[in-house]
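Posted in: Structural Biology > Protein-Ligand Complexes

Title: Requesting predicted complex, magnesium ion in pocket

I'd be grateful if someone could produce the 3D structure tokens for the following input. Sequence and ligand are given below.
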Amino acid sequence: MAGRTQVAARPSGPGTAARAGTATRAAGSRARSNGGAAPAEIQIDEATRLRMYRTITEARAFEKRANELFLEGVVRGTTHLAAGQEAVAAGFAAAMRKDDYTFCTYRGHHHTLARGVPMTPMLLEMVGKKGALMGGKGGSMHLTSVEHGAMGSYAIVGAHLPIALGAAWSAQYRKSGQVAVCFFGDGTTNIGAFHEALNMAAVWKAPVVFVCENNQYMEYTAIRDVTAVEHPAADRAASYGLESIVIDGNDPEAVYATARRYIDRARDGGGPALIECMTYRHGGHSRADPGTYRPKEEVAAWLARDPLPTYRAKLIEVGIAAAQLDEMDKEAARKVAEAEQAARTAPEPDPASIETQLWSDGGSSWRSAPAASTTAASATTATAATETAGRATNG
Amino acid sequence: MAGRTQVAARPSGPGTAARAGTATRAAGSRARSNGGAAPAEIQIDEATRLRMYRTITEARAFEKRANELFLEGVVRGTTHLAAGQEAVAAGFAAAMRKDDYTFCTYRGHHHTLARGVPMTPMLLEMVGKKGALMGGKGGSMHLTSVEHGAMGSYAIVGAHLPIALGAAWSAQYRKSGQVAVCFFGDGTTNIGAFHEALNMAAVWKAPVVFVCENNQYMEYTAIRDVTAVEHPAADRAASYGLESIVIDGNDPEAVYATARRYIDRARDGGGPALIECMTYRHGGHSRADPGTYRPKEEVAAWLARDPLPTYRAKLIEVGIAAAQLDEMDKEAARKVAEAEQAARTAPEPDPASIETQLWSDGGSSWRSAPAASTTAASATTATAATETAGRATNG
Amino acid sequence: MAEMTYRAAVTAGIAQEMERDPNVVFLGEDVAAAGGVFKATGGLVDRFGKDRVRDTPISEQAIIGAAMGAAMTGLRPIAELMFSDFFAVSWDMVANQIAKTRYMTDGQVALPLVIRTANGGGLGFGAQHSQSIENWAMAIPGLKVVAPSTPRDVVGLLAAAIRDPDPVIFCEQKSLYPIKGEVPDGELVDKLGTAKIVRPGSDATVLALAAMVPRALEAAERLAATDGTNLEVIDLRSLVPLDTATILDSVKKTGRLFTVEENPRLLGWGAEIASLVADEGFWSLDAPIVRITAPHVPLAAAPALESATMPSVERIADTIRRRLDEAR
Amino acid sequence: MAEMTYRAAVTAGIAQEMERDPNVVFLGEDVAAAGGVFKATGGLVDRFGKDRVRDTPISEQAIIGAAMGAAMTGLRPIAELMFSDFFAVSWDMVANQIAKTRYMTDGQVALPLVIRTANGGGLGFGAQHSQSIENWAMAIPGLKVVAPSTPRDVVGLLAAAIRDPDPVIFCEQKSLYPIKGEVPDGELVDKLGTAKIVRPGSDATVLALAAMVPRALEAAERLAATDGTNLEVIDLRSLVPLDTATILDSVKKTGRLFTVEENPRLLGWGAEIASLVADEGFWSLDAPIVRITAPHVPLAAAPALESATMPSVERIADTIRRRLDEAR
Ligand SMILES: Cc1ncc(C[n+]2csc(CCOP(=O)(O)OP(=O)(O)O)c2C)c(N)n1
Ligand SMILES: Cc1ncc(C[n+]2csc(CCOP(=O)(O)OP(=O)(O)O)c2C)c(N)n1
Ligand SMILES: [Mg+2]
Ligand SMILES: [Mg+2]
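-- Reply #1 --
Done. Output follows.
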């Protein structure tokens, strides 16, 4: 194809799809990035490696159990598992500063855990019990922990891209040196908000890194059936004057190296980046979806590249003791068990809490003053105020 | 810049900006078009040339007078003139089949006239008098004449791109051979609907030609200040697997040749195209905007390339008698005078018409049966029904 | 007569109309090959082909815009918005374009199209996948708004909506998809704008919609059993056109009005009806109009919180009892 | 005291707050260099710099989303939507994200932001540039909704909105931009959720908002002059929070309620207030509640049609007279 350099062919299988390290392509006509300059080779130390392994094994253990609990009816509503995609979370989180911002989607357990959010309140949020991360008001699709920089999981496709841009703009304005990292799926690249956010981020040189986890499906439909280009994110980067970047999303070290490069660049005023990580979800889109619309061989090929065993093998290869990894696996299991215990035993949340925290005054009244105190306190008036809410605090 | 062929430099003035004929660039990685194949040279006969001249001179005369009437207070509300951009309308309309669809914007007088919509009802719509094209309900920004294939002017930026795609899909489904041509401005390329429509049109191979009239300003802000790429449409074509096309929008023949090529291709099942026409509006964005945010030299340079005198000169050069063109100018003046006369003398529309044509039954009731006939016909009830509408037919 | 789920009734209604009219086409995300995320459109693509049943990208503006463009040029599209919350990303297409175009063009353009959507709460999906948006649509002139509560009404009203020459927002309450009901054999076409008195009564009028209909009915049965109260329960079925005659006649008979609304309080559909009755039915009223709604908050995900927010049978019954007592 | 236009009051209100708090930033289309298409933000960029006053592309989702992201990370953004009709293209950001996030996160995220917009009709701009969308926002839990009718209220309520810790939709009625009024010197900060009795009276309560306030007042003066009727006119100023006490107290005194709404009939703000009064104020009511609204149609562009659609002084006065007579 004319005009492209280092373009990866559409993967016929994961082996060809993903290449370790970054593969950047020529930028658009008015690229605002300095990505052309070769960065110093990024070194990955042992602590970082172990940290990434921990993220992967913990996310995997957490989601496996969450799924079991879902099938058992303990986790209710819906869940979207990222099993298979954890290397993206591991690599990026390791490259972020503690005060950087993560924006992700309903498929966001891995990213949320990767920022250090504890499992117990997360799982309680998914089951909707007392002690939940957000009091049960958000649910599985909206996990947020501001103190960990986990600025929210968003359930409307595309919505968080402009929001992440806004957080980045704020960091830029406040000169705080923070970077926003925004994760989303391949399917998200076809919605309007993607386009608006990318363009405005580029024009404003906002410190935001947009990360497409290309797991090749939007719910039950293959991304290639509904997208005009092969790489839904990378093939659109030039529209925003950005480099076209496709990396192996199942290789935590490739992810980390790329993440470091573009996060650091954004922090240094180099503006946004758009990174497409080729990956795959092991299960279906959500809940009990068996994902049968996917060819068996495709699934098998990607399972063979499961980041958990492959990264484990790689770490052992570079000299990390298996026992150390085993210890981490056990630690993950311990945390999961603890969370599970809480999920099974926690009481239901207080129903009165539904009328709290709509507003910053802690309440949810749409009246500027309690009706009873300002109108003649007739029985009718007082009761009516109660009525519409189902309880008195709504007044 | 790597990866681009035949890229025009950002115009420092119109002379360098616009090149006659089409300049296509390499398509994206999965281009669905057959644009690579060289088309037979498109011949432009005299009738077509005269037709294009007529469109230009009529649109110019119409808008000039409309603006005067606006300043005089006869035309009310708002108006957005296309003076300077008429060559785009002339070239495209000449290349369209009678039953093709035009979708345009509030800046759409030229496109509407080019499809043969008569001036008098158009001007009456702009003044809001009896006999108006749409009864005065639409106004200047919404001119529509379905019988002429003028499927509407749209006032929300970007909205009509998906709608035009839908009309094209319908033509494809009905195998009618119709093509939808959708005109919009440079500023429109930054809104979400643009992105969604382009992608879906490409995936569906819909017979729609998207035409960006790049007049270099969105209202009062230069497009370059808010856009990540130099050519807001063409530099994004690859995102949809489409060719990158930039043409001289002030040269009717260049426009015609390109329009013919891509409209015909769309009709033949070759799918959509995105064409960026470099042009300039002579006046401000709307109404009395003096457009002072534009450098004097820029305005002067583009005025020197005004399609009306330049095309006139060209036609005389190729042997068309000046008298013939004069006759057309006079004919345009006659039509404008007639429309003006109507605009000045027509009565106000019937206020009762506000309650017609919301629904296909001709009315606007939100009740499934007239209140008076179904409830006890007490004075109260009957009056109340009247109340809410301000007149009885609302019931 | 066949017993059928609400979900299957959706498929049946669409199939009935696609069979009849080749201009009926259907588009949406995951609706074809996958048969819809709620499995309400299974098999349609096999039966009617990929040209008529189309999977789309995640591009709601393009989906709704395409439906509009197709409707104005001779087709009768049905577009699916997977969750009604996604009206928010396509609201311009719905509220500014589709609703206004016929009027603005003084009738030149007709828009016979249906937007089907999974509306409402009850499944623990949280605030962005559980909204009741009938009121968003009701507030926009130019949109018809329909919300069936039974499989039979799904088929009949969907057919009526598809045949209607104007745009119809068709709200399927997603917690109702598994419920079953009798659906007559043969072609079924209902009439928009007709409310149904699902339980005749004399003590008070109770208006409900979609998932609130079975709850209101159950509350009425309970109060009949415990208090001997005889409530008239009306399934509105359609908000635009609104069957004001049935509502006003009922209030005339009972002298009392309650609404049962799943939506948050402010400007739920009950507000409009309360204002209607407080004007045109004022002299029939014996006591205050009472709206039973969700409090004015988003819908929480936790099951315990979600059910505390949506009007429950208990809350409906308790409120009606208390307010009737009060006025005695 | 200075006389100032409504338009200038917008500039003054923003400037007052930007001066005070460096975290207040402002973004929108053509707002900086051009000073806004309604010239309501002229000079701000010169005074506060390009970092704080930013021109954007035509990307309303990005504008509103960026405001949200900035608000959740320490800034207090003001975003302009040039016309309120453009809420439709950014409705997801407003209704699904901004409105719900504080609640969904159980208070972890605060969103101190203001969306300013040119709302309403009267300038002949047609159906897509003249809508009154206060009711769209009022229906969404988590949004505060303010609509000033005077220059003084513009400054005071804008300051209050900017200082408010929650998201506020600030509706400027675009036909009011040229009107003039007195604005006190010095810092001005009003209180959200306080209605103003702009004409005390005893015969009936008339509620109005924004451009309908001067019309309702004029109608009241006419009826006082011609019929000796003494109307109480209340400028609501804020729909959320809603000053229910002032409304209910007034109805208690007058026994009659009229609303004057620029919006199309169905689910205009008056519906909610009618339903409130038909419940909590029922026993005070002497006669039907009457809503004076636009008919339920889009707003036509032709001046003759536009003014036939919006409630005029004549229609307000005639309706009130007739309905008062009727009930005597
Ligand atoms: C605006 C919008 N449209 C549709 C949906 C329904 N939906 C939820 S997830 C999803 C697929 C998203 O695909 P992708 O972006 O690839 O993310 P993935 O689920 O693969 O992580 C869809 C269509 C939604 N939540 N929001
Ligand atoms: C969604 C939306 N945002 C903003 C506007 C206000 N507006 C009207 S025209 C315009 C500029 C459009 O620029 P462009 O697309 O270049 O078209 P041009 O006016 O130059 O023909 C803007 C911002 C609008 N009508 N719709
Ligand atoms: Mg995906
Ligand atoms: Mg332009």
